[in-house]
Amino acid sequence: MIEFQHVSFSYEKDRPVLKDLSFHMEKGEKVGLIGPNGAGKSTVMKLLLGLLEGEGKILVDGKELTRAVYEEVRRKLGLVLQNSDNQMFMPTVYEDMIFAPLNYKLSREEAEARVDNILARLHLEDLKYRYNHKISGGEKRMTAIATILAMEPEMLLMDEPTSALDPYYRRIVINTIRSLSQTMLITSHDLDMILDTCSRVILLSDGTIAADGAAKYILYDQALLEKHHLELPLSVMGREKETSAGEPW
Ligand SMILES: Nc1ncnc2c1ncn2[C@@H]1O[C@H](COP(=O)(O)OP(=O)(O)O)[C@@H](O)[C@H]1O
Ligand SMILES: [Mg+2]
What we know:
Layout: E1 2-12, E2 15-25, E3 30-34, H1 41-48, E4 55-60, E5 63-64, H2 70-76, E6 77-80, H3 93-103, H4 108-121, H5 137-150, E7 155-159, H6 167-179, E8 183-187, H7 191-197, E9 200-205, E10 208-214, H8 215-218, H9 222-227, H10 234-244
Parallel strand pairs: 3-8, 3-9, 6-7, 7-8
Antiparallel strand pairs: 1-2, 1-4, 4-5, 9-10
Helix pairs in contact: 3-4, 3-5, 4-5
The structure holds adenosine-5'-diphosphate (ADP) and magnesium ion (MG).
């Protein structure tokens, strides 16, 4: 579904941000892309959408990503940006959400039904007619996710989807991600969320892949995570404590 073949990228000359990156993702896979600040996670997302161009090859559905196919590929990939402010261009939540479905030639009734359905699923009905510039950061993040879901993309790229969310919204996002069957690439520092949603993890550090494997191995590997300025997910730490306390079960 997605393949990076020897991809390198630098914003500035002689300062490589991604170094010869290769990985592939199967259809339906949910992959967590983790790594310290500045590792290059957001850059990977932007390359996939053709917002940046690097060296090497990126394939989406077997097709090489070139200018000629950007439009087609962007339709398949829904991206939730790290900064949701950059993603809203209509005055209200409803107008933002219905824009793409109308563009995809759904009737207004069909498009509005789709919007209402997603708002209900994310418990955001009350935000429907609110102005985008008058809602809170967490609400913006939620409506950005809702807007992407309304596009029904084949694949979702989520850059820090739970940052800025309170525990209530965070849980809704986690449950929503778990209920979706789309292929997903999710970046986050919220490793508990990654453990809850992804079966596979790619650890990116200093522009290269430091580890790629099952979430239940990588996210339990304290030495590996700490080496890359990350910490064990809280739920895993809890379990470690239980074991080391030597409970007599
Ligand atoms: N527009 C830019 N110009 C120059 N350097 C950038 C730009 N955007 C990001 N960088 C640098 O590229 C590196 C990777 O950034 P990024 O992909 O945003 O990392 P992450 O999302 O993993 O925190 C960082 O060192 C960052 O400072
Ligand atoms: Mg980032």
